[in-house]
Write a structure and sequence with these properties.
Length: about 425
């Protein structure tokens, strides 16, 4: 049966349109344009994967290249960044207010492909594919170009050490293995011995943190045995944590100094000696022992957000958002605040990868990003909200970064001293 107004297929009947005669020249031109667009689309479809594959293979083959020819500033110009600030001991700022240059994964300069991966990574996918992706993994494991001692001499005062116990030896580790951790600790001890009045914050992170195994509890006692001129790290930390900070049951007693209240004079004995604040990530994995009183739990005493992205514009947006959050909550009341600016391949989108396809190492990313972050119009606000400015390639000389960032940090610390020396000044005045 035929329904009025509809064809036999059920669709509404429409009057036939008149046929328009197109000139042959226009028809040929249209057909050429269609063919051209198809050719362009095909070439783009082939070219983009080819570029990605070429870069990927070049990274793998160029196993020992980090994408930069420079090791940055190594002139030791910033061995003293605090001790010579006039009025510092009188102002006696809190440690959590002092601006600092931070070095992310500060002991990764020694990582080497020939060392292979740590035993944790070896059991996972990264370990399985390491023989065919060593160059790529290496490029995304090395975050600093020089030793911890050189980083300290270039102004870094917040250092993060990653490590793993490998065949009974503590080693620098960021998937790829580096030198013995003892050498990195000795670097810090040497610096402390040579620079009275300076303050170092040192964060230890055992790469075994996801395993509740027996390795991490062995660390604290081992650290006590690493000495330089008869002193270990605990000797520099003991000055502000009393012997009674460990209760009989092994827990921390209420007599322990809260990190929020810890001052420059507490840590340095009024500027007479160097001091260190020791921190641990996942501190519960180290257990309770006679050395527990020397460590602060990083996650309980610091606010820090890992953005896990590559694109600099994306990082800037996320840093802005986090700084705003910390400012609005008056986070200076609660502990350390760390601006984590380092790039991370794990959080990259395809757009991120295409945008930065020519970089392909954390050092190369950082050489560019660090300058862009330093020059951002909101940098001073970030430094107030998050006084620890943590970066990869902390001693980079690209764009004169290392000199300029040390200048900016010193200016902030001098401002802090001036404010605190003002009549009736309070900590809140530092954040107005």
């Amino acid at each position: 049966m035929k329904i009025e107004g509809k064809g036999n297929d059920g669709y509404v009947n429409r009057p036939a349109r008149g046929i328009v005669n197109v000139p042959a020249a226009l028809r040929d031109r249209a057909e050429r344009n269609v063919r051209r667009r198809r050719t362009v689309n095909l070439l783009v479809g082939l070219l983009v994967p080819a570029i990605v594959l070429t870069v990927f293979l070049s990274v793998i083959c160029d196993a020992r290249s980090l994408g930069t020819d420079s090791v940055g500033n190594t002139d030791g110009a910033y061995g003293v960044v605090l001790a010579d600030i006039e009025g510092l001991t009188e102002a006696n700022p809190r440690i959590v207010d002092i601006a600092m240059l931070g070095a992310h994964d500060a002991n990764t300069f020694s990582l080497a492909i020939d060392n292979g991966v740590d035993h944790i990574a070896a059991d996972g996918i990264l370990g399985k594919i390491f023989p065919v992706s060593a160059g790529l993994q290496y490029r995304f494991a090395v975050t600093q170009a020089v030793s911890p001692y050189t980083l300290l001499m270039q102004g870094a005062r917040f250092l993060q050490f990653k490590f793993s116990l490998e065949n009974g030896v503590w080693r620098a580790a960021h998937n790829v293995l580096g030198r013995e951790l003892e050498k990195d600790v000795l670097d810090v001890l040497r610096f402390l011995d040579e620079h009275p009045g300076e303050v170092v914050l040192l964060l230890f992170q055992c790469t075994n943190e996801e395993e509740n195994n027996a390795d991490c509890p062995l660390f604290d006692e081992w650290l006590a045995g690493v000495e330089y001129k008869g002193k270990n790290l605990y000797d520099y930390a003991e000055i502000y944590v009393g012997d009674d900070a460990l209760a009989d049951d092994g827990s921390l007693s209420e007599t322990r100094t809260d990190i929020t209240d810890l001052t420059y004079n507490d840590v340095t004995d009024g500027g007479k000696q160097a001091g260190i604040v020791l921190l641990q990530r996942y501190a519960e994995l180290y257990g309770k022992n006679e050395y527990t009183r020397y460590f602060y739990d990083m996650d309980a005493n610091a606010l820090h957000r890992w953005h896990s992205r590559i694109g600099c514009s994306v990082l800037i947006d996320e840093i802005d958002d986090y700084a705003t959050d910390l400012t609005e909550m008056r986070a200076y009341r609660f502990g350390l605040r760390v601006n984590q600016t380092q790039a991370a391949f794990s959080g990259a989108t395809f757009g991120d990868i295409l945008r930065d396809i020519g970089e392909w190492s954390l050092l190369k990313f950082a050489s560019k990003y660090n300058v862009e972050l330093l020059e951002n119009e909101n940098f001073s606000d970030w430094l107030k909200a998050m006084p620890i400015f943590q970066v990869d390639f902390a001693n980079s000389d690209y764009g004169d970064f290392n000199n300029r960032v040390n200048g900016a940090i010193r200016a902030r610390n001098e401002e802090i001293v001036r404010i605190l020396l003002g009549e009736g000044a309070t900590v809140a005045d530092l954040y107005k």
